[in-house]
Amino acid sequence: MHYQNNISFFAFLAVVLMMIVFPSHAQKQPLIIEEQGSFMVGGEIVKASGTFDPINHGYFNPSNQASEGQTLHGDHAYVFYQIPQDKRKLPLIFWHGYGQSAKTWETTPDGREGFQNIFLRKQFPVYLIDQPRRGKAGRSTEPTTITAKPDDQLWFGIFRLGIDNEFFKGSQFPQDSLALNHFYRQITPDTGPLDIEVNINAVTALFDKIGAGILVTHSHSGGQGWLTALQNDNIKGIVSYEPGSNFVFPENEIPDPISYVGGKLSARGVPMSDFKKLTQIPIIIYYGDYIPTEPVKYPGQEQWRAALAMAKTWSNAVNKHGGDVTLIYLPDIGIKGNSHFPMSDLNNEKIAELMFNWLQEKGLD
């Protein structure tokens, strides 16, 4: 009897410990998904001249394959979607940054729920994009060369996790070696030349297909997001995490380029009639921590100093013409330690809550 009591005690203790170690998992309710699926959207079809020979086309001899008369479907986007029960009126369309795919928005490198699940739990339909020539949309109509060279520490710096292999003090990015290993493995190459117009056309086609929605961008897709909004009225709001390039200004109001260690950030000019489209929708921009206000010697930080400075100039320009842009540097509101990937950081639920509150404030929920 005493032995059985000990077993019961240890079993109870194990349950308590599991609840302490995994409190978020223990408290979450099951997700009820009404519909989910995936599709390709946009893209081009290339046809080679000549006549296809179904017998002597080189199937069994790849080095001698002939293209004559054949077609190539490529340059589309891949989209995975989930629609929860009791869905909200507007979906969230998540677009990744450079060197990334839809994985950006899925499970975090250390296994916590990412923005995909966080916002499904808030009843938003969620669409995750792999842009053309990337990830599951890897079929390109143009060739490229993919190299395989060690560059993890380059990304570590550019993504403001830290310098070399040392995390910044107070970093919110998960720092265990397993999480970092997973993070490095989500970096993915382009399978064709990076072409902004190709990407914009595919995402425009997505909004044509699904209708009104809210575009959520990260890094490199930030500037592409502004340009997509110029083409598609179905974008009803934009949430942009750390946009880094392609800030759009009226043609006669283009600011001077901003120099930084390793490069120069220039703006793009568009006709005023196009620019005014950005004043018709609410936009919010978030930047994380460790962005210097003065030049430093590390290029990984420097490019974000330039981006934040350009974002301030851009926000003022849009608002001057009647727009509704909010720019938030997270440390200014007491949220410190965020990397270039706030959607993956340890406080990603707090970051998501900021976004959710803004969506409610602007009537986009």
Automatic annotation (TrEMBL):
Entry keyword Signal: yes
Annotated Gene3D superfamilies: alpha/beta hydrolase (3.40.50.1820)
InterPro entries: AB_hydrolase_fold, Carboxylesterase_BioH
SUPFAM superfamilies: alpha/beta-Hydrolases
UniProt KW keywords: Signal
Keyword set includes Signal: yes
Residues spanning the signal sequence: 1-26
Protein name (record): AB hydrolase-1 domain-containing protein
Protein species of origin: Marivirga tractuosa (strain ATCC 23168 / DSM 4126 / NBRC 15989 / NCIMB 1408 / VKM B-1430 / H-43)
